[in-house]
Amino acid sequence: MSREEHLLSTEIVNRGISDGGSQTFSVRVRRRLPDFLQSVNLKYVKLGYHYLIKHGIYLAILPVLVLVFSAEVGNLSREELWRKVWDSTTRYDLATVLSFVALFVFTLSLYIMSKPRPIYLLDFACYKPSDDLKVTKEQFIELARNSGKFDEPSLEFQKRILESSGIGDATYVPKVIGSSENTATMKAGRAEASTVMFGALDELFEKTKIRPKDVGVLVVNCSIFNPTPSLSAMIINHYKMRGNILSFNLGGMGCSAGIIALDLARDMLQANPNNYAVVVSGEMVGYNWYPGKERSMLIPNCFFRMGCSALLLSNRRRDYRRAKYSLEHIVRTHKASNDRAFRCIHQEEDSQRYKGLKISKDLVEVGGDALKTNITTLGPLVLPLSEQLFFFGNLVWRHLFGNKNAKGNNNNTSQLANNKPYIPDYKLAFEHFCVYAASKTVLDELQRNLGLSEENMEASRATLHRFGNTSSSSIWYELAYLEAKEKITRGDRVWQIAFGSGFKCNSAVWKAIRRVKKPSTNPWLDCVDRYPQSITQ
């Protein structure tokens, strides 16, 4: 416990006056994210450099061949070169020249063939539910109370969670959560899925002018609700897509599954040229509604809200001019081999046989470790060379000499300060950050650990406040916010990072191909001018 004291923070809440006139208060103890940048594992840095140079052998060979050829023939006149090529008695016979040319062409071909196809994001859409589904925090508690499924202590607990959640008074929930009936039915789940998925896809096809029959790859991710036929089959049936479409349905993969679905779509586009891919990410709130009394399972009720995103990808080079972004990198981290990580977000039944998601107290620590691994692997791919040199040199120095110095100077605080690692400045690698809006506490800790500014976190905090936690689609509501604010200019790099059950942490890096003007359809258009001021109100 003494080793974990630095991970705990305290806050005085619920101040008041007792019946006897004395002051009363409660002390809330929270567990912070570990300072993961203080303990970087060298093997993940190595993995990042492996991703960086996996095609570098061809780039290294080509200049060598060109230099050798130039050195050999650079001092010869055209007549001398011609005579040496065709005269078999001289040094340069035809077979030598042809062999060199063949080697050059072969190496160049290998490089071109091994180089991945560019993947473009033509556009994306985020579903905005109708106003009759909009609720304030008070209305949310009243819906829960009217359902008759919760006792007063459970309602009071959810109310306290909402007060410090960072969620505003204009989020969306399905009406079914206010019903006294069972909400986790296939009928209710399919109804909500149809509403959010088709709403996002209708907008996407309208914006891009792409026919559903032109789509060659479809990937759908939804963690909890996985009916038969699948959600991807529902979309194919609704839009009458073609019979040879490559469709995939990802289930049970948590709030970071949107980037996993994106990675799968990218792989399919690499293997199938001249194609379009659609990725749909969402979660069904009503189907995941927990009606019991277990507090660790009531937490998801307070945060998750309705939402869905749909994006259109292309590997056609002619789509470059109409595309908004190009996909630069995807880095995925999976910690399920660790038992604590595997069970920190776990779907199970409580003592009353009610099914829900149980949130472990280890979540913050497990999440910090997964995040540390992910950003350490991502660093060599995105950081400027100067940052990489400082970071890598400092890391190697600490691994070689840091432990010795620490052992010999256990009580010397100045020595420990000198051993402090160099923390890369990720603001030099990205212009915009889309951090998964899980909760206010998580965003606060990520901002502190990564050294991000309020402006860097603006999109995430605004999304949490306006739309709540929409699971795997949250990072797309955040990018929609940046577009509505007209903050995206040509060449800007956007970092999307999400994490979820498993435990997984995944990153996607995009580069803006052009300046993105304010879209004509966007879920933020009616309220974007109220942000970021509304976050602090």
TrEMBL record:
<dbReference type="GO" id="GO:0009922">
    <property type="term" value="F:fatty acid elongase activity"/>
</dbReference>
<dbReference type="GO" id="GO:0005783">
    <property type="term" value="C:endoplasmic reticulum"/>
</dbReference>
<comment type="pathway">
    <text>Lipid metabolism; fatty acid biosynthesis.</text>
</comment>
<dbReference type="GO" id="GO:0016020">
    <property type="term" value="C:membrane"/>
</dbReference>
<dbReference type="InterPro" id="IPR012392">
    <property type="entry name" value="3-ktacl-CoA_syn"/>
</dbReference>
<keyword id="KW-1133">Transmembrane helix</keyword>
<keyword id="KW-0012">Acyltransferase</keyword>
<protein>
    <recommendedName>
        <fullName>3-ketoacyl-CoA synthase</fullName>
        <ecNumber>2.3.1.-</ecNumber>
    </recommendedName>
</protein>
<dbReference type="GO" id="GO:0009416">
    <property type="term" value="P:response to light stimulus"/>
</dbReference>
<dbReference type="Pfam" id="PF08392">
    <property type="entry name" value="FAE1_CUT1_RppA"/>
</dbReference>
<dbReference type="GO" id="GO:0160062">
    <property type="term" value="P:cutin-based cuticle development"/>
</dbReference>
<keyword id="KW-0812">Transmembrane</keyword>
<dbReference type="Pfam" id="PF08541">
    <property type="entry name" value="ACP_syn_III_C"/>
</dbReference>
<comment type="similarity">
    <text>Belongs to the thiolase-like superfamily. Chalcone/stilbene synthases family.</text>
</comment>
<feature type="domain" description="Beta-ketoacyl-[acyl-carrier-protein] synthase III C-terminal">
    <location>
        <begin position="432"/>
        <end position="511"/>
    </location>
</feature>
<dbReference type="GO" id="GO:0000038">
    <property type="term" value="P:very long-chain fatty acid metabolic process"/>
</dbReference>
<feature type="transmembrane region" description="Helical">
    <location>
        <begin position="56"/>
        <end position="74"/>
    </location>
</feature>
<dbReference type="InterPro" id="IPR013747">
    <property type="entry name" value="ACP_syn_III_C"/>
</dbReference>
<keyword id="KW-0808">Transferase</keyword>
<keyword id="KW-0472">Membrane</keyword>
<dbReference type="GO" id="GO:0090627">
    <property type="term" value="P:plant epidermal cell differentiation"/>
</dbReference>
<feature type="transmembrane region" description="Helical">
    <location>
        <begin position="94"/>
        <end position="113"/>
    </location>
</feature>
<dbReference type="InterPro" id="IPR016039">
    <property type="entry name" value="Thiolase-like"/>
</dbReference>
<dbReference type="GO" id="GO:0006633">
    <property type="term" value="P:fatty acid biosynthetic process"/>
</dbReference>
<dbReference type="InterPro" id="IPR013601">
    <property type="entry name" value="FAE1_typ3_polyketide_synth"/>
</dbReference>
<feature type="domain" description="FAE">
    <location>
        <begin position="111"/>
        <end position="399"/>
    </location>
</feature>
<dbReference type="GO" id="GO:0009409">
    <property type="term" value="P:response to cold"/>
</dbReference>
